[in-house]
Specification:
single chain; 504 residues; alpha+beta; six-stranded mixed beta sheet; five-stranded antiparallel beta sheet; 13 strands
């Protein structure tokens, strides 16, 4: 490769090189000289355009009655060092959650270098502990802010108030799988420790210090290791005792409220189950809840009732997936003017052959009998209760004994038993309604996935930073408030929202 001539040139002749090899100008945009005097705008406000979303945060927080919402330190101290105005700290958090900044340390750093935050906080720079303590000390108040904004959304007619989608999603807790224990895991650890202690005791008995090899630990070292193992054993035994006293199946040492749950791709992680009710009109989150139970079953009625209360309506339509299919829950909904559209889970009756699944047995309502795929009649038997729900059994063991298809139908020696829910007529009505309104039900996934997709995948809020059920509820309130605020800005625009939030 040919070298370009230096500044000294060739044979003592000085050559000045400009541009590229083709003699043109430099191909890059050049920055300004750092030592050059620059005339910046005199006011920080000049850096913030009229359509900047940060002005909405300012207008919204300034419109709130902080004392009524329950915030602490709403009245300045008479003595001592002045505290930060809770309005400023709330503005900081709202800005952070809207811009993918949740950590108190990162918020502290941004307050000192971010022009938008300099404008919003009037150049205040609270330290990370002050920021973190604000969220910790105002859990209820922050949740009330979420509700307050939703009341404004209702006033602005951003809610449709007719149809909601209820859905849940798992968010990782601030607790690793390693620090989560159940009875089986504890027993495995205890067995390992007992074996180690036993081996060390045997080694201690056979260890002759005078003839011992230099690599063999001394008696004192062995005794020390045994004591350490006993301490670990005592820790696991204490966990066992706590689980027994509290009647729980597992325990998390970092975040005691978190639980091991199934997540995507059949994996497991220590999580919380976040429940949401999403309005059909603009995909806004009407209300939410956080539970430490992996199952969605049993939460439909509660979420729908919360949505009704927030929206101020007497009746509503609720869409949900098959995970919410619960007899007692659906019964409550139908009795409280909540029209449900829920996918029916497949009922196989634990039979491998699809020709003999329970849904292949025909029910005769007039005679109260079932007709099996082989044409035999199954008659009503005992009524039993399973998980609080009453079922009627139907069977005909005499016919089963003589049936050539018995091996394909059941593994029971006696014969096949069909269990019918005593509320089956109601369930059939819901199933029929869901099937007849497929277009409406098809909206469920679109409505439910939009908030979770935005919050978890686009914003990256797939895990909690705080510990404890109440703390993660507060963190969820900030995430969902930021989501609803962003949706409202996109729908109405910055200037229109400021106009609505500013008193006339």
């Amino acid at each position: 490769m040919r070298k370009l001539p230096t500044e000294k040139g060739i044979k003592g002749i000085k050559i000045e090189i400009k541009g590229d090899r083709r003699g043109g100008e430099m191909p890059y945009i050049k920055g300004e000289n750092r030592n050059q005097i620059t005339l910046f705008p005199e006011a920080v406000d000049d850096y913030i355009t009229p359509d900047n979303p940060v002005r909405v945060i300012e207008a919204f927080v300034d419109s709130l009655d902080m004392k009524e919402l329950g915030f602490k330190r709403t009245t300045p101290n008479d003595v001592g060092r002045p505290a930060y105005d809770p309005r400023d700290l709330l503005k900081l958090y709202l800005y952070g959650y809207l811009n993918r900044i949740r950590s108190s340390r990162k918020l502290e750093a941004e307050a000192g270098r971010n022009v938008e935050l300099m404008w919003l906080l009037k150049k205040l720079k609270p330290d990370f502990k002050t920021i973190a303590d604000f969220r910790k000390d105002n859990k209820k108040a922050i949740k009330n802010v979420f509700k307050q904004f939703n009341l404004l959304c209702k006033e602005w007619e951003l809610f449709g108030c007719e149809v909601i989608a209820v859905d849940g999603s798992k968010f990782r807790a601030c607790n690793s799988k390693r620090n989560n224990y159940n009875d089986k895991k504890i027993k495995r650890h205890l067995k390992y420790l007992d074996e180690k202690i036993s081996n060390y005791l045997k080694e201690l008995d056979s260890n002759d210090q005078e003839e011992a090899d230099t690599h063999i630990p001394s008696a004192e070292e062995i005794k020390k290791r045994i004591e350490e193992l006993k301490k670990r054993k005592a820790k696991y035994q204490a966990m066992q005792k706590e689980m027994k006293e509290k009647k729980i199946d597992e325990i998390s040492t970092t975040d005691p409220d978190a639980r091991l749950m199934k997540v995507n791709n059949n994996g497991v992680d220590v999580c919380y189950n976040v429940q949401t009710a999403i309005d059909q009109k603009n995909k806004l989150i009407v209300d939410y809840d956080v539970i430490n139970n992996a199952a969605d079953q049993g939460n439909l009625y509660e979420m729908a009732e919360k949505a009704k209360e927030t929206l101020g309506v007497e009746e509503i339509k609720a869409l949900a997936d098959k995970g919410y299919y619960s007899t007692s829950d659906l019964k409550k909904c139908e009795g409280n003017k909540i029209e449900t559209y829920v996918a029916k889970p497949k009922n196989t009756g634990s039979v491998a052959n699809p020709d003999f699944h329970q849904d292949r047995f025909q029910y005769d309502q007039e005679q109260n009998i079932y007709i099996c795929p082989a044409g035999q009649t199954l008659y009503p038997s005992r009524i039993r209760k399973i998980n609080g729900v009453e079922y009627q059994d139907y069977k005909n063991f005499r016919a089963c004994k003589q049936c050539e298809l018995k091996d394909q139908c059941t593994s029971s020696k006696k014969g096949r038993t069909i269990s019918r829910n005593l509320c089956q007529e109601l369930l059939d009505e819901i199933d029929k309604r869901t099937q007849e309104n497929k277009e409406l039900y098809a909206q469920r996934q679109m409505l439910a996935e939009h908030p979770f997709g935005t919050i978890k995948r686009i914003w990256g809020y797939s895990h909690f930073l705080t510990k404890g059920l109440e703390s993660v509820k507060t963190e969820s309130a900030l995430s969902f408030l930021a989501y609803n605020l962003r949706r409202a800005i996109n729908i109405l625009g910055v200037e229109e929202m400021i106009r609505k939030l500013t008193p006339a």
